[in-house]
Amino acid sequence: MNTIIGKRIASIALAGVLTIGLSACGGQSTGDSGSGASDDGTVIITNVSYDPTRELYQAYNELFKEHYKEETGNDIEIVQSHGGSGGQARSVVEGADADVVTLALAHDITLIEQAGLIEEGWLDEFDKNSSPYTSTIVFLVRKGNEKGINDWDDLTKDGVDIINPDPKSSGGACWNFLAAWEYASRKFDNDEDAVKDFMTKLYDNVTVMDSGARGATTTFVENGQGDVLIAWENEAIATVTEYPDEYEIISPSVSILAQPSVAIVDENAKKDGTEEVSKEYLEFLYTDEAQQIIGENGYRPSNEEILNSFSDKFDLDMELCTIDDFGGWDAAYDTFFNDGAIFDEIYSH
User: Fold this and answer.
1) Of 78, 165, 222, 329, whose CB neighbour count within 10 A is largest?
2) Architecture of the CATH domain 3-133+260-308
3) Which residues contact 336 (CB under 8 A, 6 or more apart)?
4) Which pLDDT belongs to residue 40?
């Protein structure tokens, strides 16, 4: 097994072990310290994030530690926690001691706000609607693309096995669903019955529905299941970088601008005395040094100049819809993802 995927799989196994200690709050962690300060004065904060950001924050945290030491003379430890974005949000609501959350979509952070842990207006606290990086949704196929998968239409064909996470627990899966829905809406001129039929055929072909995006990548890459993975762009890039002779990325004709969001968990940060450092931790994501690390890890930097410097890595010509095209996340959840909404209708037909 090569290094990137091997480390990714190992981190999942480690997270599974550490989950035993966090089972009361449902999180998965790569560390087990509480937030605040240790006996030697080291500042400790906890970043509760979603599945595919492990490697990004491992790299970013080292950069931030150096910055914080230079600025303050003090050491800092950042505890990472990763899992499906929806599950991670619920873990914070249920008591996980997150100082900051860096989740797959704004709706998951809104759930924490509604629980009284994050103050109103968090979306405007940081630049670009508190999205220091973006991504999109692509297809990862095995080299040679034996099934001829080039666009969303091809995912509805008989004999195509799809690996895709579950929108009930995975933020990435919600982005996946909306990108496919947008394609079908354009194809069928917003005929909802035709669009639902298209989506039903697509989800009929989903053979494994993991709880999170990283689990879906593991199923496809490590376990060798499926013909195509509907994937975060960064997950696809990491896989192709590690296995250039085994996988390739297919950019669909229509996808979506996926905007992961960040926020301070105000109530926890106040309790832990980490408000200022938590704010600095998230603000530093927008610096040129951090934006470079973001691009190197397969996420699209919010800084347009730095994004364009990665034009060889990203397909910047893709046609992308946005969550605003669905009326925002509250409307999208009401229409598609809440219990009894369209996803349940088409998946439990």
Assistant:
1) 165
2) 3-Layer(aba) Sandwich (3.40)
3) 167, 174, 177, 178, 181, 326, 342, 343
4) 75
